[in-house]
Amino acid sequence: MGSKKRTSADSSDDVFENNNNHTDSFLKKKNKKSKHDKTNDDTPSGAACSRVDMELQKKRKASDKERKRAAALDKPKPPPLPPATSDSNSDAAVSSLPELPLSYFRDLASPDSLIREAAATSLVKRLQEIQKQYESLPDKETIDGGLMLEAEKNDGLDNCAPHLRYALRRLIRGVSSSRECARQGFALGLTLPVSLISSINVESLLKLISDSLSVSSSMKGQDVKECLLGRLFAYGAIARSGRLVEEWKSDKDSQIVKEFTNALIGLAAKKRYLQEPGVHALLDFVDKLPVDAVVTHVMEAPELHKWFEQATEVGNPDALLLALKLHDKISVDHPVFGKLLPVPFSSGKFFSADHLSVIGDCLKESTFCQPRVHTLWFVIRDMLLPEAVVQTEDVSSAPSSSKKQKRNRKSSPVEEEATNNIRSFCETFMEGTLLSSSHDRKNLAFDILLLLLPKLPASFVQYFLSFKFVQCLMDILSTKDSWLHKVATHFLTELVDWVKDDDTKRVAVTMALQKHSEGKFDNITRTKTVKNLAADFETEEGCTLFLQNLMNLFVDEQHVPEEPSSMKWALEPSSLNSDQSQTTDDNSEIGSNEEKDSVGTTGNSDVLKSWVIESLPGILKHAKLSPEAKLRVQKQILKFLAVQGLFVASLGTEVTSFELQEKFKWPKTATPTALCKMCIEQLQLLLSNSQKIENPLPKESGLEQPEDPVSYFMKFLSTLQSIPSVSLFRSLNEADEKAVKELQETESKLSKEEKNCGLSSEASKYHALRHLVVQLLLQILLHPGEFSEAASELSVCCDKAFGSSSDLLNSDGEGEADGEEEPAVMDVLVDTLLSLLPHSSAPMRSSIEQVFKHFCQDVTNDGLLRMLRVIKKDLKPARHQEDQDSEDLDDDEDLLAIEEEEEEEENEEMGETGESDDPADDSETVTGVTHMAVDREVPEDSDASDDSEEEDDGMDDDAMFRMDTYLAQIFKEKRNQAGGETAQSQLVLFKLRVLSLLEIYLHENPGNPQVMTVYLNLAQALVNPSTAESSQQLLQRIWGIIQKKIFKAKELFKDESIELPTLASLLEKNLKLAAKPFKSKKSGVDPSKKKQSAAWNRHKMIANLAQNSTYWVLRIIDSRKFSETELEKIDSRKFSETELEKVLDVFRSVLVGYFDSKKSQIKVDFLEEVFRRKPWISHQLFGFILEKSVNPKVEYRRVEALEMISEALRSLVPISKETHEESKKIMKSHLVKLSLLIKELVANMPEKQARRAKVRKFCGRIFRMVSSLKLTKSLLKGLGEDGQTACETNLGDLFMNLKNTEG
């Protein structure tokens, strides 16, 4: 069939459209060439003119597509056909046949499926009507001769009307068009006539399809493709019509089925893209055939034999798909299948390694259809995972099924076969073929697993997520440049989503990913996959299952054993109160060291085991469990960590304890010491977390208190120690062994005391001590030889507590037998806690803080000073402190002398810019009052041990006891080592930990008189330059504690022993510190911007400290005589003149420095805030401020002070009806000075606009007050003529309005 023939056919379409009444016009215009074909929808894309017309039609039809659709749906039914006549005249006969509208063919290509279906239905109805009338005509040959068109008479469709023959040819050509949805629509249009009109000869139609859509040598690639796809769609239409089945049923010896199979397979063999749709078309046909027809006709097709024979050699996945489907249809081992299917056929033989190697090429060549997954894999999925296996797995994994049922359930033959099939498929094909091949085949591996996921039982995850698969996944995810990265990311997302609601699947996936990545999946892939998976367990069953798998992974057990006696880590809680104290290890595995070494390489890596250890305490982090359930899981984790971290089995790897009714296992390879230490650290963390969430039940509830983790651990520890074949993972020296025994005895005593106390506060103290005892015991095992002394001291403290009925302070410190005074037990406890802080772990520090929190109300002055001494200790003494210990709190005269010396230097070297040569130690400004506040609290003989603190060589035992031993160690490090950076960083860390204790103390004792002691020492440490040099974090921490826990404390401390002169002196020091300028060096080398910024930030922090300290001290002064509720109404008349003058003198001195020197950097806003908070100060100093403002030595101070004067005047002279006379009297007494101030302001008006505005604002305020109090004349008199003239000149209307109110 050439293009010329198609063009003539297309020309005939115009004839049908333009002249529907007389068919003679077809013959007249048969050979006429059409300029533009308006109905070119069925023309193949091979002709160039057809392509141009097709594009024009697309553009035209796009605009009125909706109109066509509505017209097609609402099209009225065609008029009824006229009755057939027996007129022998051909013209009359032809005119009697109904017309065939060509719009049907256009609508068959519509993208709208409804339009296509309506067009196909209308077309077949019209063709049926035409064929019916045609068959009733007496002279059919005359009609045929007149309407032959371009069709040949010998096409085999002699019994069909000319219109039907034309429609069939038109439909066959239409399925080869790629325009819009022409293939689908014309295939549907071909299916319906073939199915409903019996006059159509199927054999002739097949020949017509082959001839009309044959491929010629002159066709190009796209034309060939169009013809081949057209034949495929045409064959599919015939297969779906059902006529072939009817033909076979009417004549079982007919060869039509075999011919159709040959034609379809022959077509599929031409091109790869035709194979899969061709197989689907054949399978649709086979589904309609009886089995015997398939066996005798389809299976005997020669083309099918040839196709199956070559399938394994060329790698034909479609042939394998067809073979599987045909075998499923006939259920017979037919020889035509050849090597594609095993004989006899079974899923086990099909997935055997030998057969998979035979069909391997067929399977891996299915990648050609990516990104779509080949249909073959849907069939293989159903073979790998039959419904029986999936349903059984769903029932066994249901939450309602008990653990005992899961252990006792035996696998069925179907499950065993499925397991073997999965294992063989994964090992042979997935790992052996796909993962070691190209990117496309790796992509196929991901697609296969994604296809299997919805039906995949959790027990099969381990086979698919194998070592090679996980390694491949990690390699891809770690390389973002690979095009497979998106594929792997999508796979990982789907995998995580698949396990979202199933804890069993989540456990299986998590364990597979970590096991095959050596515990580094998240690190290598730079994701949080495993972390998020492990954090999603919310039920006790899920936590227990995850815990079980982690423990099995640690001891190299691949599967959970079915026998209850073989492993009972977390299945049932065991009783630790059994009367059987005798344990035995007769059933333990016995093996030599050589055997252990020989299997050492088979165990899991240390990195993987470390991940297991780190994951155990985090299991409960996000779980929403009841306290009882959480305690049960905690105990199982605790047992495992204790067994693996603290003990080893001397014989074999298993030990059975009859008392605990459990068998404990260790890895076959000896656990490294580093992993044992990690177990102990996680054990500490677990116990610390349990302390934070413990909620004891009230006694009145009548319920028995659950056994807390500390008691459980100590009993479990004692039980394991009593087993002969179990020993600690490391040997301890005599001191450590003694300390461990003492701590165990101490914990037992504390536990008894706690039970006797019930739920009182004393019980909380004992409970906190018990946690600290256990943490210290584990710390001894972590760091042998370092904590035995501290353990002994802690045991002594606890023993002292047992001797009294209340708390530790009841030890009165009376002397021993030799007459020496025994230190207070609380001091010993504080020293012990301080000695534990430097090297303690985070859980141990938490326990130390809990103990200190419960006992901080009983801390003595000596213990508190020892803590503060640590904060002030400096390894690099500042200037003026090299010959003096910074911890000494006396020598006040020395410090003041230093300050005076600095002031002299500053007067000589400081210019108006406020710069000096050296940064002085700001701590000296607050140290002067420290002696007065602390001296009364320190015992008289306390200095005896402090005088020699700096001398390391001469430090005796008593001094070591009175001072923190860790500080002495730091001194020795600095002296013995070349560099002191390590010691300095350790000291900073130690200070931060001690600050946490001090913060707890301030929080728990806001009204304690010792708050002043803490404040003075922390303030001195804050202003010390070495603090900022050593650590900015330390500086910010100290400032935060002072600000939040002292200045902003809700309760103000009360200490009547602090005299007013002491407070006044402290006030003076803070005001001087607030006025101190920022100093920078005058050296030639410019400091770095970082250092300048740090110095400036420190200066602002110190100024802020001084200002807030001033407010705080003034608040304390007020509280000496008045309650908090009376502070708002305080007045200067409530003080005696002597007391008042001491405070006022301080402020006078500050104001003198402010007005007389540029060196003073005190902020006016700060003084204004002081006057606002304490009005009595501004009232007493108002006259003094006016005097200094009139004649300041520094001119610009006068304008700066105006806001301060306004604030003082606002509270001093309130304007109201009730206070009018009193305010007038006060105002009149200061009016002369105010007049002089205004006169000076207007006479020396500032040049800057901002300062001039301040002057105008201040004068306006004074004028309004004077006017309201009727004192205008007095003010004008005080101003005098010169002053009034200056006011008129500089103030203008503001002053004139005042003069107008005169009278």
UniProtKB/TrEMBL annotation:
Q: Where is the composition biased (Polar residues)?
A: 574-591
Work out whether the entry's keyword set contains DNA damage: no
Protein keywords: Nucleus
Q: Where is this region: Disordered?
A: 1-94, 396-418, 573-602, 901-958
Pfam families named in the record? DNA_pol_phi (PF04931)
Q: What is its main location?
A: nucleus
Could you name the Gene Ontology cellular component terms for this entry?
nucleus
Work out whether the entry's keyword set contains Nucleus: yes
Stretches of Acidic residues bias are at: 901-924, 940-958
InterPro entries, from UniProt? ARM-type_fold (IPR016024), DNA_pol_V/MYBBP1A (IPR007015)
Localization (cell):
Nucleus
Q: Where is the composition biased (Basic and acidic residues)?
A: 52-77
Family designation: Belongs to the MYBBP1A family.
Stated name of the protein: DNA polymerase V
Species of the source: Eruca vesicaria subsp. sativa
User: What taxonomic lineage is listed for the species of origin?
Assistant: Eukaryota, Viridiplantae, Streptophyta, Embryophyta, Tracheophyta
